[in-house]
C-alpha cells in the first residue's frame, strides 16, 4: 500500500535499520540467539499465510507452531533456485508488485534469476551491507569507499551534498579497464575500503605481483561474488595487506555471515539470518549443503534456500560457526555414459597444487578438456610441461573416464561477462 512512498525513502529506511543492527561480534551470543528464535517464529507465521508456503508446510505435515528456533527449519523442505525462479516469475504478474524492486542475479549459475524485493527489505539488505563493513571496524560515513562500477555508478569523490562534507564518500574503479589504468585509479583515490569481484581482485593482484607494481593498500577490502580460496587469500594479503573481509551470501539472500582478517571461521549475522548445514537427506549435519534463511524477508520469504555451496560447521554453546565453504560449482564434467564428475571430487587436487595460482576447466566435447592456468612462479620452479604432466596424471586418475587435456598458460584468466569466474565450463549439451 505504501510501497511507492517507501521506495522513494529507501535510503532513509536504510539508516533506521542500520541503527538497530548489531555492528560488533558479540562476546555473549545469548541475546542474539533469542532474537533469532523470535524472528524465526514471526517469519513462519507470515509465510504460512502465503499460498506458496502453505502448500509446502502442509506437504511436510508442519504447522508454524512446530517451528520455534532456527534448527527447527529442518522440518521444512529446501527451496531450490529453480523453484524460486518459477515462483518469482508467477508472482511478478501481479500488479501489486509494481512499486517493488525487480532485482536480477548475475546468472553465475547459468540463468539469471529475477527477484521481487519490497522497498523495506531492499533498505534492510543495503543496511546489512553497511553492517558488514562496520563489524570489521570500518566507518562508511567518514571513510572513503571504492568499488567496481555498476549500471548505477556515478563518478566518485565529492558529488553529493553529504560528500562535500566528507560523509559517505565513494569512488569507482572501472573493472573493464587495463590493469595499469585500474592501478592508477586506485592509487589516486586511496580508498579506505575497496570491494569488487574476487576474479577482478585476482586479475589486478596478479598484474601487480608479476610486474612489481605497488598498489595502495586499503585498511579493508572485500572480494565478493565468489569463494576466496587459500591461494587467493595469500596473494591478496601480499598485495593488499591484512584487511580482508570475507562476506558470504548471495544476491537473493544478502550477506549472511562474515569472516574477518586471519580468522578461520565465519560468524553468522544471527539476528537476521539462519545458516544451517544439511546432509543429502536434509538432516542437520556438521558437513553438507549450506542452507540460508534470511529472517528479514517476510514479505516474500526465502525459507531454507539451498544456495548450492557445501560447507562444514562447529557448534559452540548452541551457536553455529561455519568453518569452511566450498563455493558453487554449477557445472560438471560429463561423460557419454550419463555419469558426471563434480568439482568437489577434484577439489583436493587443485587445493594441493601450489604450482597453479588460478585455473579454469573448459570441457570442449566428450573426450577433451581445455585448461586455462596461471602459474605460481614464485613457488614453482617446475616447467609448465612438468606441471601439465603431473596435473593430467592426477586428474585422469580421478575422472571416471580419462580425458585428452590441453593447457593454456596465461597471466590471468579473464572473468565471465558478469564479472565472476566459473571454474568449470561444460560445452557438452
Q: How would you describe the overall organization of this protein?
A:
The chain is an alpha/beta fold. Among the domains are: 3-123 and 250-326, ANL, N-terminal domain (Rossmann fold, 3-Layer(aba) Sandwich), CATH 3.40.50; 333-426, ANL, C-terminal domain (GMP Synthetase, Chain A, domain 3, 2-Layer Sandwich), CATH 3.30.300. Helix content is 31%, strand content 25%. The strands form 6 sheets. A 4-stranded parallel beta sheet has the order 4-3-5-6. It has a 4-stranded antiparallel beta sheet with strand order 10-11-12-13. It has a 4-stranded mixed beta sheet with strand order 18-17-16-19, with helices on one face. A hairpin with a 5-residue loop joins β14 (333-334) and β15. The protein is globular. The termini are far apart.
Amino acid at each position: 500500500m505504501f510501497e511507492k512512498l517507501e521506495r522513494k525513502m529507501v535510503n532513509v529506511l536504510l539508516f533506521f535499520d542500520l541503527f538497530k543492527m548489531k555492528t560488533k561480534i558479540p562476546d555473549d551470543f545469548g541475546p542474539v540467539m533469542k532474537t533469532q528464535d523470535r524472528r524465526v517464529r514471526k517469519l513462519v507465521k507470515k509465510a504460512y499465510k502465503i499460498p506458496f508456503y502453505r502448500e509446502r508446510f502442509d506437504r511436510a505435515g508442519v504447522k508454524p507452531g512446530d517451528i520455534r528456533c532456527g534448527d527447527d527449519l529442518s522440518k521444512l523442505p529446501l527451496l531450490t533456485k529453480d523453484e524460486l525462479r518459477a515462483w518469482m516469475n508467477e508472482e511478478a504478474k501481479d500488479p501489486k508488485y509494481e512499486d517493488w524492486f525487480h532485482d536480477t542475479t548475475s546468472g553465475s549459475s547459468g540463468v539469471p534469476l529475477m527477484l521481487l524485493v519490497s522497498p523495506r527489505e531492499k533498505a534492510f539488505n543495503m543496511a546489512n551491507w553497511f553492517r558488514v563493513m562496520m563489524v570489521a571496524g570500518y566507518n562508511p560515513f567518514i571513510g572513503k569507499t571504492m568499488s567496481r562500477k555498476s549500471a548505477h555508478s556515478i563518478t566518485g569523490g565529492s558529488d553529493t551534498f553529504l560528500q562535500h562534507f566528507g560523509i559517505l564518500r565513494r569512488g569507482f574503479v572501472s573493472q573493464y579497464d587495463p590493469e595499469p589504468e585500474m592501478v592508477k585509479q586506485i592509487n589516486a583515490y586511496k580508498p579506505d575500503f575497496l570491494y569488487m569481484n574476487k576474479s577482478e581482485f585476482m586479475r589486478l593482484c596478479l598484474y601487480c605481483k608479476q610486474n612489481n607494481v605497488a598498489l595502495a593498500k586499503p585498511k579493508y577490502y572485500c572480494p565478493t561474488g565468489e569463494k576466496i580460496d587459500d591461494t587467493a587469500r595469500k596473494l591478496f594479503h601480499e598485495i593488499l595487506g591484512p584487511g580482508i573481509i570475507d562476506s558470504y551470501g548471495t544476491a537473493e539472500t544478502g550477506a549472511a555471515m562474515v569472516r574477518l582478517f586471519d580468522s578461520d571461521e565465519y560468524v553468522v549475522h544471527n539476528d537476521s539470518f539462519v545458516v544451517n548445514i544439511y546432509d543429502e537427506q536434509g538432516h542437520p549435519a556438521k558437513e553438507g549443503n549450506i542452507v540460508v534463511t534470511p529472517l528479514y524477508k517476510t514479505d516474500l520469504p526465502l525459507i531454507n534456500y539451498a544456495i548450492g555451496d557445501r560447507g562444514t560447521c562447529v557448534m559452540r554453546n548452541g551457536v553455529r560457526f561455519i568453518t569452511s565453504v566450498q563455493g558453487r560449482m554449477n557445472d560438471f564434467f560429463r561423460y557419454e555414459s550419463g555419469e558426471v564428475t563434480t568439482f568437489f571430487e577434484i577439489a583436493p587436487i587443485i587445493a594441493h597444487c601450489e604450482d597453479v595460482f588460478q585455473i579454469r576447466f573448459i570441457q570442449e566435447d566428450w573426450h577433451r578438456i581445455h585448461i586455462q592456468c596461471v602459474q605460481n612462479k614464485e613457488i614453482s620452479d617446475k616447467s609448465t610441461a612438468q606441471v601439465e604432466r603431473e596435473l593430467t596424471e592426477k586428474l585422469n586418475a580421478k575422472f571416471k573416464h580419462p580425458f585428452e587435456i590441453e593447457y593454456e598458460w596465461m597471466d590471468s584468466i579473464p572473468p565471465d561477462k558478469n564479472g565472476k569466474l566459473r571454474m568449470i565450463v561444460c560445452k557438452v549439451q
